[in-house]
Design a protein that fits this description.
alpha/beta; six-stranded parallel β-sheet; four-stranded mixed β-sheet
Length: about 450
């Protein structure tokens, strides 16, 4: 079960001193950068409110903006594919593979491709898949999934990467980050020229120009979408914004919350395949609009605000639970607080309801969200929904009913000496609370007993 795996991995990572030291080091650099980056905004809180309003407006009118995007994108020669499920997206990708007789493809960073398990599917079809984002390339070499929405290899130190490159690529050991980067760059250059298909995601879909807006720091997305003859962008339907003018707000907000930058190095808007007067670009461009549970979440008025997410990763970096257990523990495409909100809707509430309980409800995630998603409240709504659907064990039901029964009968709680109660609690919580903590202790005297000793009978 997913819950059992989550609990097992959580305990393993929480007490892994090396893992925690690496994460704390990398997160400290992120928090320092974000603090400095906030200075670029005259009024950052107003920017958050404006971004939240625009995204909420778009979500509330998603049908209109999706059709507007499709109309404008196809007018420029692009092709739009609607994929209701993960399997639908895979089938459409297979058609494209077969059409161009694809043997290899290069991929810019895209979490939606992880969502549809594109790498595994492509390899089953005999297609070589090469990740071109440095972090994604590192975790691909390691045979892992992305650890973080924005920084896929956050859990690895320079030494870890040097050891990996030495093992997989036979390069000499080095702690020079620039040399490690150049090693990957040299190996990836020829892959851009060999690939028949380039894959990307889309940070935003711009309705009024029919454009796919991509923001990055390495330039690999531009190479992946320019050199191959076919470019396929796989994008969730919630990524819409109404106008290109909105990017003047969203690009800085995304960069600031994601990496602490004022703006990322490369910002591109792709509106279709190469035109007759253009000298580069793909001959064909497809946009796969992925649903995969999003319209079901859209139909839930209480929780549709989760679709405002711009995948900046700020909530992960603020979350005390994520900082301790790490990204791989969630065993999902989207980890951290926002992943705990949306995954039960994308992958199934019964299998992933436990993620909504993996939170202290401290509200740190909500306080840093650039589009003001009330993440901690949505986690509570997920919990409520899972209970309403009956996704709980008989033991839980018995436990809560016993608690309610006892709380309604104060004298029952006061019955018997504290020593017996403490012994019972120690046994009862030996495999949960008391496994890593001091056992729960009942006070020698109850409140009622102490009150009666000092004030008389109640």
């Amino acid at each position: 079960m997913e819950k059992d795996l989550f609990l097992e991995k959580s305990e393993e990572k929480t007490f892994d001193a090396k893992h925690r030291a690496t994460i704390n080091f990398n997160m400290a650099k992120y928090h320092a950068a974000v603090q400095n980056g906030t200075a670029q905004f005259v009024n950052h809180e107003l920017g958050r409110s404006r971004a939240s309003y625009i995204k909420q407006h778009t979500i509330d009118h998603l049908d209109r903006y999706l059709l507007e995007f499709e109309r404008n994108f196809t007018a420029n020669g692009g092709k739009v594919i609607w994929a209701r499920t993960r399997e639908d997206a895979q089938k459409e990708m297979l058609k494209i593979f077969q059409k161009v007789r694809c043997r290899s493809m290069v991929k810019a960073k895209t979490m939606t491709s992880e969502e549809i398990h594109l790498n595994e599917f492509a390899q089953e079809q005999g297609v070589e898949v090469v990740e071109t984002d440095l972090g994604e390339y590192i975790v691909q070499l390691a045979g892992q999934k992305p650890y973080h929405i924005v920084t896929p290899a956050m859990h690895m130190s320079k030494k870890d990467i040097s050891d990996l490159f030495h093992e997989k690529l036979q390069t000499p050991y080095t702690d020079d980050a620039q040399e490690l980067t150049l090693t990957a760059r040299r190996l990836l250059r020829k892959k851009y020229l060999e690939a028949e298909i380039g894959i990307s995601g889309g940070n935003f879909l711009v309705a009024d120009v029919g454009g796919v807006a991509i923001t990055e720091n390495e330039g690999n997305a531009r190479l992946s979408t320019t050199f191959p003859k076919v470019h396929v962008a796989i994008v969730g339907i919630e990524k819409l914004i109404p106008s290109m003018m909105d990017l003047q707000l969203f690009w800085p907000m995304l960069a600031h919350s994601g990496t602490g930058q004022q703006v990322t190095v490369y910002n591109t808007i792709l509106t279709g395949p190469r035109q007759s007067e253009e000298v580069d670009g793909p001959e064909e461009m497809y946009v796969i609009l992925l649903d995969n549970g999003r319209t079901d979440l859209l139909a839930d008025k209480e929780k549709r605000g989760a679709l405002k997410c711009i995948r900046c990763g700020a909530c992960l970096n603020a979350c005390p639970v994520y900082k301790n257990i790490g990204g791989h523990t969630y065993h999902t495409t989207y980890s951290g607080p926002i992943g705990s909100v949306i995954t039960p809707h994308y992958e199934g509430m019964e299998a992933f309801k436990h993620l909504s309980y993996a939170s202290s409800l401290c509200g740190s995630c909500t306080s840093v969200c650039p589009v003001r998603i009330n993440i901690h409240e949505l986690l509570l709504l997920n919990r409520r929904e899972s209970v309403k659907r009956g996704y709980f064990s008989k033991l839980e039901k018995i436990g809560f009913r016993s608690w309610v029964y006892a709380m309604k009968r104060p004298r029952l709680l006061s019955f018997g000496p504290a020593s017996i109660k403490n012994a019972a609690l120690k046994v009862l919580f030996s495999t949960s609370w008391a496994k890593r903590r001091k056992a729960i202790q009942v006070a020698p005297k109850s409140f009622r007993e102490r009150w009666e000793e000092s004030k008389g009978k109640l």
